Amino acid sequence: MDLDKESLPVLGFVIFGFLVGGIWFFHSSKGRSKEERTLRFRKYWSYALIVSLSSLFAVCGGYLWLGYISVLLLFGGIELIRNLSIGRSVQFFSVLGMYLILGIGAFLSFSILSPKLCLWLYLGIAGFDAFSQIVGQSFGNTKISPKISPNKTWEGFMGGLTYLFLFSGFVFSFWGNFSWKCIWILPIFGFLALAGDLAASWIKRKVSIKDFSSILPGHGGFLDRFDSFLFTLSVWTFISIPLGVFREPWN
After folding, report:
1. What is the pLDDT of residue 2?
2. For residue 145, what is the enclosing H or E element?
3. How far apart are CA 23 and CA 49, in angstroms?
4. How far apart are CA 49 and CA 71, in angstroms?
5. Can you tell me the distance from the alpha carbon of 68 to that of 186, in angstroms, rounded to the nearest whole number?
6. Three-state SS for 195?
């Protein structure tokens, strides 16, 4: 286990944030029906557990991170196989082939990327998804791809990108400097996260499903929750092999 002690304050901040958010969540649920409170409770705390555990595995690094990624890829692959039609062989094998290639990249992250980088990627994408959704629902009008994902808007994307800049500035203050390299790397980060989400939405449109499964309360399946992350992690690993600047952009 390669515990990254410099990342522990960030992990502590994440856990503290969810606890404070839980208090607000408890008060905001008053006056709602019992069924609605139960659904909101399950969704919030399951998300808090997912983010906290994912962040912990990233901080630990090494074989714990490898095991964590392997579990995500395994369950994600099972969800794909269950939902794709073997009768449409071209679609079936092309999608699984792409998933295998991406899986190799995500798998290699344990030996290519540092625990800091993996933590930054995960928390950055989790926040990017959340803020894109919040800003998109509140102010979004310009659709990115109406046929694939009608709820995705450019306003939401810019909201998620704003979060990335603020979050990265906060995190990099623990590890180094928010240098000029981050200015052009962060938009790449955002577009990769968006591409992963759109790719998963395209597959769901093709097979006419809303979620890949219902294993995660309030979130759907593993691919519904981790699509952007696995895609970005994989591509980031591949481009980090020849381009070392992507391994520690805060230096």
Report:
1. 63
2. strand 143-145
3. 16
4. 16
5. 25
6. helix
151 in helix, strand or coil? strand
Q: Which residues pair with 216 in a beta bridge?
A: 220
Residues 238-249 have a mean pLDDT of 87
Band of pLDDT at residue 181, cut at 50, 70 and 90: confident
Alpha-carbon distance of 43 to 86, in angstroms, equals 33
Task: Give the per-residue pLDDT at 246.
Answer: 84
Return the exposure string of 106-128: e unless at least 16 CB atoms fall within 10 Å of the residue's CB, then b.
bbbbbebbbbbbbbbbbbbbbbb
Q: CA-CA distances (angstroms) from residue 247 to 51, 84, 135, 218, 243?
A: 22, 35, 30, 33, 8
Structure tokens at 107: 């798998």
Angle (CA) 189 78 85, round 5°: 100
pLDDT at 1 over 60: no
Residue 94's Cα: distance from chain center in Å?
23
pLDDT tier at 11, thresholds 50, 70, 90: confident
